[in-house]
Write a structure and sequence with these properties.
The chain has 121 residues and is mainly alpha-helical. Helices cover 55% and strands 0% of the residues. The longest helix is centred in the N-terminal third of the chain and has 20 residues.
Length: 121
């Protein structure tokens, strides 16, 4: 059976995630530990969850944008580099919140794009 367009999109998304982790020189366990400090406790994930994202189990549209923002922060990349779809979703949310989003994305220094330090790269 030939791969579908959806399969190709899943694999491209998975490859972006894996490439970003490889470039950050982090193991799955390293990533899991780092993002556990960024995510609320009820969202903590295991290294197996990250592995499933990297092997194409989840499509970009089904991926959790909060988790992707944490991964972007851990890898020190823009959220849009990992997932243009998640970045657009966050952008729409910010548009709805207007000026009322101060502190909405967690601790001071965490931006909507998932980059620590309040800025974007």
């Amino acid at each position: 059976m030939a791969p579908t367009m959806i399969d190709a999109q899943k694999q491209a998304f998975a490859a972006r995630l894996r490439k970003a982790r490889d470039a950050s020189d982090m193991s799955l366990k390293d990533v899991m530990i780092k993002i556990s400090h960024l995510l609320p406790q009820q969202m903590w994930v295991t290294d197996e969850t990250i592995r499933q994202y990297e092997t194409g189990r989840y499509s970009e549209k089904k991926a959790n944008p909060v988790l992707l923002a944490a991964l972007a922060t851990a890898y020190d990349v823009k959220l849009a580099d990992l997932s243009p779809y998640a970045a657009a979703t966050v952008g729409q949310l910010l548009g709805l919140l207007g000026d009322h989003h101060d502190g909405f994305f967690g601790p001071p220094g965490m931006s909507a794009t998932g980059a620590a330090g309040g800025g974007s790269r």
